[in-house]
Design goal:
The complex is a heterodimer. Chain A is α+β, with helices and mostly antiparallel strands. Chain A is 14% helix and 17% strand. Chain A has helices at 58-69, 94-98; strands at 34-40, 48-54, 77-82. The longest helix of chain A has 12 residues, at 58-69. Chain A is flat and about 60 Å long. Chain A starts with 33 loop residues before the first strand and ends in a 23-residue tail after the last helix. Chain B is mainly alpha-helical. Chain B has one domain (2-241): Ferritin (Up-down Bundle). Helices cover 64% and strands 0% of the residues of chain B. Chain B has nine helices and no strands. Chain B has helices spanning 2-26, 35-63, 72-77, 88-91, 97-118, 124-152, 156-169, 191-205, 227-241. The termini of chain B are far apart. Classes of the chains: A alpha+beta, B mainly alpha. Chain A binds chain B through residues 9-11, 32, 53-56, 59-60, 63-64, 67-68, 71, and chain B through 30-40, 43, 142-143, 146, 150.
Chain lengths: 121, 247
């Protein structure tokens, strides 16, 4: 079933008393896809996820990212990827995926005696 | 000295043009079609206000020889319609998003060519301002061109809307290239290149350049449409009601 959700965009001023026009309601046919934005702040560092935004295509997504996320010189390189292409681990699996690592402290390289000559470890 | 007088008039023309377009674009703030584009248009607005300030500050210095009380603020807030020398296209109402975008495209394309030329002038102030501004202007051109293509070559509705905007705006584009007596950059020479760039984008946007249209002029000499009075009323309200107010 398609549950109607009242979706307001930034700056929307509802014209009717009930708020939100029926056209603006979900089904998302007219809505632009969501993109995840990654910004590299300077040479030699890696791109970091900074947030997401809406855009009609990749070019617009990069420009939107430039306007939304680099206004204060936060970056010198932008990556965008459509959110639907990101596959995520299921939070419900967290117990089986991550907890087994909790009691395996021997996986941390903290049990070795380092010779004094070795620096920067 | 007539040379200084022309330099002052021309500098004010550049400042007024940037300020009035910024004021118009600023009306989109919080009313953009989507958050990201709201920020994009207001970023452009801030770029234009930055340019206007640079030109007003220089104009105020050119004034100093004769009058002391002139500042960038007094130039922006205390002059009347007849004294403003902005291009007419800047003061027109925003219309819909298509009209706002198309105006930005026409204007920024012109401004990019103008600044390119200005970089070679012998006035060091203009050179400095042009060099600083042209980078952002390139982005304004890129951003607005893409929108013109997107709307022109988009849906039936978007194509209709931008065609309507074209009918409204085209008659105000001739003024770019008709020089005022004080104009110190040869704007007539920019026309061909401007037309080429517009044609290039229009081809992709499936739009046609109108022919045999009577071109409106007057803005450069203070003869404006009725719109400017309303724009200035809002822009200058605070300084007119509370003279010298600061915050």
């Amino acid at each position: 079933m398609n549950t109607p959700i009242r979706k307001f965009y930034y700056g929307d001023i509802p014209e009717e008393n009930t708020g939100g026009s029926i056209n603006a309601i979900s089904s998302n046919e007219k809505a632009w896809p969501l993109w995840e934005v990654f910004i590299r702040s300077k040479q030699g560092l890696d791109h970091k996820h900074v947030g997401s935004l809406h855009a009609a295509d990749a070019t617009m997504a990069i420009e939107n990212a430039r306007d939304v996320y680099t206004r204060r010189q936060e970056g010198i390189s932008i990556w965008v990827v459509e959110s639907k292409f990101i596959h995520a681990s299921d939070p419900a699996d967290a117990e089986s995926l991550y907890e087994p690592a909790a009691d395996k402290i021997y996986r941390h390289p903290t049990f070795y005696d380092l010779p004094d000559a070795v620096k920067h470890m | 000295m007539p040379h200084t007088k022309n330099a002052l008039s021309f500098t004010l023309h550049l400042a007024d043009t940037a300020l009035i377009l910024a004021q118009r674009n600023g009306e989109w703030c919080a009313h953009g079609p989507i958050l990201e584009q709201d920020i994009a248009i207001t970023n452009i607005t801030l770029d234009l206000i930055g340019q206007a300030r640079n030109f007003y500050q220089y104009a105020a210095r050119l004034h100093e020889a004769n009058e002391n009380a002139v500042t960038e603020d007094s130039l922006a807030y205390l002059r009347t319609e007849g004294q403003f020398k902005n291009l007419l296209i800047c003061e027109l109402p925003n219309g819909d998003w298509a009209q706002t975008i198309l105006r930005q495209f026409f204007f920024s394309t012109f401004q990019m060519l103008l600044f390119e030329k200005m970089k070679q002038s012998n006035n060091t102030q203009w050179v400095a301002i042009a060099e600083k501004s042209i980078k952002e202007t390139h982005y304004h051109v890129k951003w607005s061109s893409e929108w013109v293509i997107r709307l022109g070559d988009g849906t039936t509705e978007s194509h209709d809307r931008i065609t309507k905007a074209l009918d409204t705006l085209w008659m105000y584009t001739g003024e770019f290239f008709i020089p005022a007596s004080y104009e110190m950059i040869e704007v007539t020479a920019l026309k061909n290149e401007w037309m080429n760039k517009v044609k290039e984008v229009f081809d992709e946007a499936t739009l046609t350049i109108p022919e045999n249209v009577f071109m409106q002029t007057g803005g450069k000499n203070g003869v404006h449409t009725e719109n400017l009075g309303f724009v200035l009323t809002e822009l200058q309200y605070l300084q007119r009601v509370f003279p010298g107010a600061e915050w």
